[in-house]
Design goal:
Elements (H helix, E strand, L loop, with lengths): L2 H18 L4 H17 L3 H18 L5 H17 L6 H14 L9 H17 L12 H11 L5 H17 L11 H7 L5 H15 L6 H11 L8 H17 L7 H11 L5 H21 L1 H10 L8 H5 L6 H9 L4 H8 L4 H18 L7 H12 L4 H17 L2 H14 L4 H13 L2 H5 L2 H8 L2 H4 L4 H20 L5 H17 L7 H14 L2 H17 L13 H13 L6 H14 L2 H16 L3 H4 L3 H17 L5 H20 L1 H7 L4 H8 L4 H13 L5 H13 L6 H10 L14 H17 L8 H15 L1 H9 L5 H11 L5
């Protein structure tokens, strides 16, 4: 370049610099635009350096210009210088960084424009990137200025500034070896950004915090704070945030200093991502975690190689089908095994009051069990109480996940160890639904060979009154799940043990009996289906009942106390009677139990048991009685029913008498031969019941008379009188039964008190009274009345003809006479 050209160029630059300092904003702006174009036209670093030497003071001053456009242009010019320089120029470190600090790095933010703040932070990132070096620490002398800027702007109100700041931090970490000196000062502001409402900010904050922790030395509390702050983001609603948590966790497992001390806190970050809802996240994090395992294997090769020699088979036969993926590598499993101290944190979160936290911790526990396998057995005693509580949770999703975890434990853990602990807790807390559900899932996951040897021990414990006598619907459902498993195992055995069979039978009967407490019949339906499966055949069912029902009835304790109809003991007795009925072997046990209830319990409880007796008597099986039905029924009626049939004052007494009469009627329906012999002995009770206040009692009493055999003459007379009095009963059903009963009422002619004349007079009186009710307005009575008259005509033709002659001659009676004479009613 000629000297004249150079002089012209310098004059132009002097004019340009003068215009940059001009008071007129438009001139300053035009001059800066001209300078920007001039920078891009420089071809060499020497030319750029000369240009910069003439203009840098003016540019630095423009950083503080009162107009935002001027400040923005100055920043753009410096960026262009930075871009065009092939070599490093100390100007950026000596002048620009300190200027930045004064503008955006002080506690009181000088720069008011958010856009300029963002431009300055972006420029800071470019400068750091330009001056990064592996040889000389060029950034060392202005390191504190840069850190002041970064720390201050992490608390900026502007979200974009946060993200630019995080990018600059990541660049600075690799740009200077001195980054570790103040790295811990970034932890607190970065952890605050983890709660930012924008997901992009949360994501880059996690990434930056992960990088910063790699350079923290002798500040373990800061690393712990970082991990604890990141952990809640594992349940973030945005997938990118969760993914970054897993990536940082894997990065820490590989690169973090003293990482072995933090394994129990870092590993959960990775394992939680392995249970993420998105397949892409699970696959990506799994790839990273495999590399972590490989590094851990290499670092502990001598120890793990010995394990590798014997660790080539799956721990259980259906392992792959269970977890739907291949078995984790030995390095990953060893890494998790070394981190089992994390269980303390997981257990604490399993007891948290927030449902998402409990669910999240259970998913994490599932992964820990999967990787730790048998090594987790040593932690089972710590986890089991919290897992049992989770199984009793109000949230169905939590219960479902807790049962999955328990099932996996049953698959992978040492059977004898967890069985000993759970059996101990079942005995200690016999009515705990959570423990029962947890045990059920554990047992379901265990190998069939182990379970076969434990069925009798478990069934013996479950059959006790403390465990089995529970009215809770959820508890009964869980109990049925466990029983179903044990029954299926029992049925696969070639030789069934008698003790095991006895306990399983008792549990099934008790559970079905107690299901009567609920309106929902699902439990009863399941129980009955399982009961039929267990018994196999009706004959075997009868045999099992005869063998074991005495013990079931005797297990119902404290029946000599006052119980209501909702008492577990009353419901149990009612259900047993209803399900199994009567057999000779346990007839006396039922009789004793029912007697205690009728003597001590409330009226409603007595009514419930009597209704159960009615249903049982309707299903009476003579084959089960082995020819002793007459004797057993006589004793039962005399000892149990007859005292209840005696009249007592009060509404409760009326209801009890009604149910007792119904039970007596059921005997008459199912045991007609026995009833013909037994019922005549109850004539005095029946006479009293026929005039009872309750219509239903009167109806059942007359039905009992219909089933009875010949009565003694005096009893017959009183019965005729009482039944005839029921022809005027306010209840039409009672009137119909009375009319039906009169022709069927029998007298014993061999009785010493029997008188033929008196008997004929009674028959005449019966027939004459029946004729009087032919005009009853109740439409159903007339055919019953005519049928009864026809039976009396056939049974006593002479007396009947004499009574017809006494009838008045009118159209009603003439029609009846004609019908009877023509035998159309026979």
């Amino acid at each position: 370049m000629s000297s004249s050209t150079e002089i012209e160029r310098n004059l132009e630059l002097e004019i340009l610099c003068k215009n940059i300092q001009c008071a007129d904003k438009s001139k300053r702006q035009a001059a800066l635009n001209e300078l920007l174009q001039s920078v891009s036209k420089q071809s060499t670093d020497e030319d750029l350096k000369n240009l910069l030497d003439l203009t840098y003071l003016h540019l630095v001053k423009c950083y503080t210009d009162k107009f935002e456009a001027i400040r923005s242009l100055a920043i753009s010019i410096v960026n262009e210088f930075l871009k065009c320089f092939q070599t490093r120029n100390e100007f950026f470190l000596d002048y620009i960084i300190p200027t930045m600090r004064r503008r955006i790095g002080l506690p009181e933010m000088v720069e008011e424009s958010e856009e300029i703040q963002l431009e300055l932070l972006t420029q800071l990132g470019h400068i750091v990137e330009k001056f990064q070096s592996n040889d000389t620490d060029t950034l060392m002398r202005i390191y504190n200025d840069i850190m002041d800027i970064l720390v201050r702007n992490l608390t900026n109100r502007y979200a974009n500034a946060h993200r630019e700041c995080c990018k600059a931090i990541q660049l600075l970490a690799t740009a200077t070896p001195s980054f570790y000196m103040r790295a811990e000062s970034l932890v607190d502001p970065l952890t605050e950004l983890l709660c930012h409402r924008q997901s992009a900010t949360r994501t880059i904050a996690v990434e930056t915090l992960g990088v910063v922790c790699l350079y923290i030395t002798n500040k373990n509390d800061k690393i712990v704070k970082s991990i604890v702050s990141i952990s809640p983001l594992l349940t973030d609603s945005v997938a990118a945030v969760r993914r970054m948590c897993g990536i940082i966790g894997c990065k820490w497992l590989i690169e973090l200093r003293d990482r072995y001390s933090f394994f129990e806190r870092i590993v959960p970050l990775v394992l939680c991502c392995l249970k993420d809802d998105l397949v892409d996240i699970r696959e990506e994090i799994n790839t990273h975690f495999i590399r972590c395992g490989e590094q851990f294997f290499d670092e502990n090769q001598q120890e793990l190689q010995r394990i590798e020699l014997i660790d080539h088979e799956y721990p259980c036969s259906n392992y792959v089908a269970l977890v739907t993926k291949t078995r984790p590598t030995l390095g990953c499993r060893a890494l998790v095994e070394k981190s089992l101290r994390m269980i303390n944190i997981i257990v604490k979160e399993m007891l948290d009051w927030k449902e998402p936290v409990r669910l999240h911790s259970l998913k994490l526990l599932w992964e820990v069990v999967l990787f730790a396998e048998k090594a987790f057995t040593c932690k089972f005693i710590e986890v089991f109480p919290a897992l049992a509580k989770a199984c009793q949770d109000d949230e169905n999703s939590v219960v479902k996940e807790a049962k999955r975890v328990a099932f996996l434990m049953g698959q992978l853990l040492n059977y004898n160890d967890w069985m000993e602990i759970t059996m101990r807790d079942l005995k200690k807390f016999p009515n705990c639904l959570g423990i029962l559900r947890c045990f059920n899932s554990l047992f379901a996951g265990a190998e069939i060979e182990h379970k076969r040897n434990s069925v009798e021990e478990i069934a013996k414990l479950i059959s006790t009154s403390e465990m089995c006598h529970n009215l809770n619907e959820g508890y009964q459902s869980a109990l049925l799940d466990l029983i179903e498993q044990m029954v299926n195992i029992h049925l696969t055995k070639i030789e069934n043990e008698s003790g095991e069979e006895k306990y399983l039978f008792e549990i099934l009967v008790k559970t079905i009996a107690l299901s009567n407490a609920h309106e929902n019949n699902e439990i009863a339906t399941r129980g009955l289906s399982l009961y039929e499966t267990f018994c196999k055949t009706p004959e075997n069912r009868v045999f099992l009942q005869g063998m074991h029902m005495t013990d079931v009835i005797n297990d119902i304790e404290d029946l000599d106390c006052e119980h209501s109809e909702r008492s577990e003991r009353i419901i149990m007795l009612f259900g047993c009677i209803k399900l199994c009925g009567f057999q000779k072997e346990y007839f006396s046990s039922i009789q004793t139990a029912v007697k205690l209830v009728l003597e001590n319990s409330t009226a409603n409880a007595q009514i419930k048991i009597l209704s159960g007796l009615s249903m049982a008597f309707l299903n009476w099986n003579h084959e089960n009685m082995q020819g002793s039905a007459m004797n057993l029924l006589s004793i039962f009626i005399e000892d149990i029913l007859e005292p209840v049939l005696i009249w007592k004052a009060g509404r409760n007494a009326e209801s009890i008498r009604a149910m007792a009469t119904q039970a007596l009627c059921s005997i008459g329906c199912s045991c007609p031969d026995e009833a013909r012999e037994i019922f005549p002995k109850l004539s005095k009770n029946l006479i009293s019941l026929i005039e009872d206040e309750l219509a239903v009692t009167r109806a059942y009493a007359i039905r009992c008379v219909l089933k009875a055999g010949p009565f003694l003459y005096e009893d017959y007379r009183h019965l005729v009188t009482e039944i005839l009095s029921r022809l005027d009963d306010p209840c039409a059903n009672v009137r119909c039964l009375a009319i039906e009963c009169l022709p069927q009422l029998e007298v014993n002619p061999s009785d010493d008190m029997f008188s033929e004349t008196g008997y004929s007079s009674l028959v005449e009186y019966i027939i004459s009274r029946l004729f009087l009710y032919l005009d009853d307005p109740y439409i159903k009575i007339r055919p019953i009345l005519l049928d009864s008259l026809a039976k009396l005509q056939k049974k006593h033709p002479v007396v009947f003809e004499n009574e017809i002659k006494k009838l008045p001659t009118n159209y009603l009676y003439n029609d009846i006479i004609e019908d009877l004479k023509s035998a159309r009613l026979e």
